[in-house]
Amino acid sequence: MNYDLYHELNKNISFARATSEYIMHPNQLNPQGSIHGGELIKIMDMVAGIVARKHSRGMVLSKRLDDIVFHKPVYLGDLVTVIGQLIYVGRSSMEIMVQIYRTKVSDSLDPELVVSGFVTMVHLVDDTPSQVPGLVVNSKEERILYELGKKRHQEIREKLMNSK
Ligand SMILES: CC(C)(COP(=O)(O)OP(=O)(O)OC[C@H]1O[C@@H](n2cnc3c(N)ncnc32)[C@H](O)[C@@H]1OP(=O)(O)O)[C@@H](O)C(=O)NCCC(=O)NCCS
Fold this sequence. Notes:
Blueprint: H1 5-8, E1 17-23, H2 37-56, E2 59-70, E3 79-89, E4 93-103, E5 112-125, E6 128-129, H3 140-162
Antiparallel strand pairs: 1-3, 2-5, 3-4, 4-5, 5-6
């Protein structure tokens, strides 16, 4: 789905969210001179973890990183903005949409989407997957995200069932 978190997030969305900004450093480069994909995945995972902790108010672990697409390279010195948005919850699992935007600090261009993906986090109490609070959908914007998350959750469940 084509969803632009940076430009479309607004006050009508109350589901948990986290944003974080980083400047890319030389130790994050790959041999081609752009930022290593694993570095970007790591910050996606961290921001998704913050979202899940905010919603569950407790311990969480990453269960699945999915549909990660590197749209454009990121370079040394770029400012990256990572946005994590909770879009759906199951019983113990939370589906989080994560997008990374790049801004070249040397110019005033609008931030551009460089990476997108989804993270499934599981809430644990005493090492056991445990119930998280449900989501209450109050706005059109929340409905769009919730339906997307629900569809993903169902597709993942079907995949898991079929692989048994
Ligand atoms: C997280 C962990 C405790 C979950 O254990 P589990 O045996 O899969 O637990 P369950 O089968 O009860 O499933 C828990 C939830 O995860 C979901 N889930 C299970 N397998 C999944 C998969 N492959 N993809 C996405 N979601 C999955 C289930 O649907 C369930 O969601 P629900 O409660 O909302 O219905 C366990 O897999 C684990 O410890 N994994 C390692 C986590 C880790 O080290 N992460 C990296 C560092 S943070």
